[in-house]
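Newbie here. two chains, one complex. Structure please?
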Amino acid sequence: MLERLLHEIEAHLVGDLRRAGRRPPQALLRVLPISQDWRRRWFLQFDYSGTVHSRLVIDSWAARHLHCPQNLASLQSHAQTLYSRLYEDELQRRALDAVTLNFRWSIQDNPDLLTREAYERFCAQRDHIRRNHSRRRAAELHEAELRVCPPVAIDAAFQQLVVQGVNMTATEAAERQAMSAEDIRFGLAGFGAMVEQDGLSRAWLYGDWNPGSGDVGSEEARARGLRLLEEWLSAAQREQYRTHRYFDVVGSKSGKRYRIHHGRQQNIYELDGKGEQVCGWCFLPSGGLVEGDCMLAQKIALETDEEAALRVANKFPAFVGASPGQVALGGMRTLRDGDLVLVSFDDAIGEPSEISIGRCTIYQGIRVAADRDEGTTGVVRITVA
Amino acid sequence: MATQVIRGTHGRQIVMDHTGDTRHQFNPADAAQVKAAEERFRELTGLGFTAATRSGDREPVVTRTFDPTAEETIFIPRLQGG
């Protein structure tokens, strides 16, 4: 999905460049934060030098993605770098066209001129253009390093508990952990919880970051799957799902309550009497089915043959912000001593002594428990003073 | 002329697949259609699908035998650990 957004932006920039004709704007000055137009469609505004503006309409998923300031900043930086590169490409293309044309004219207008001499001049000019072009491009790239989030799953593989928040099966997570040499980058902040330190400590919690755990299937198939799910949910479950994007089922044997969140995998949580997560269970039907089908299969399995379902399931610990949709929709439990939260710091200035989670609760005495990548991202263990 | 909506005259088999689901309808009064539905049931359960039936708003029930009177039967592929 992110790649699609980047492609759309690239296509938009190329379109703007072409529409500008012979004198395209030299620079993309800024990309304004997302706004809504009168039709309530989300759009990004691109401001170029020479007071040229354009708008790109984006879908709601992309808008949600860009509500995260870090992602918006990375996209803005990416768009500027991309435009510089495209602009350079355009300049090079024009310069090369010009010398090629000049070369043709030389031969045409001066039949006596040695073709070889004209050709050598052409080659020299062409090489000069290419050399300069490469240098300019390299400088641009150095100044504005591409900050596009890679697929989060790859980067988050370093830490066992963090992995619970990613769209992977437990098996995949184990595989990824084996290759966990990769550092982590800011991009992973979105799927669980992100805490950004700026002196006073601010925090955002993004639970609805990913539309579902490991989405598969076409839009049509997914819509079909969700329709089927709704048909088979009880009235109470349907209502709960529509409101919260999760629904509760009762185990056929133990009578325990399970909460099935929207998603395909790692989306089932066993709840205790107070409604708090005890642990997570991961099982799904084989065959790469869409999330609606998976949730329905999970519901039927737990309601009709809980024991068999849990026999094949993998168990995983409950984790704050573990499930997409869980945090944003208020289903997250209160942070407790020992909880691990994924954090991302703006600057690598020491360790935070105080972090606010959500809007009002201050947790003190937080220490960074594990890996940090150049001081920008890591996992903190919550210690409530 | 008023139109009368007759419910439950057809059985429906829903097979979960990568397109979301595939649906097959059969008329319980038609022996040939019932036979085809029964074969489909046996074939799918033989492949490891779990069959669950539901009538009206009642809770789903897992079944291991073909019931031509069931309003809806859903076939779920074998479960696996994630």
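Moderator note: Chain A has three domains: 2-143, 152-207+332-381, 219-317. Chain A has a mean pLDDT of 64. Thread marked as resolved.
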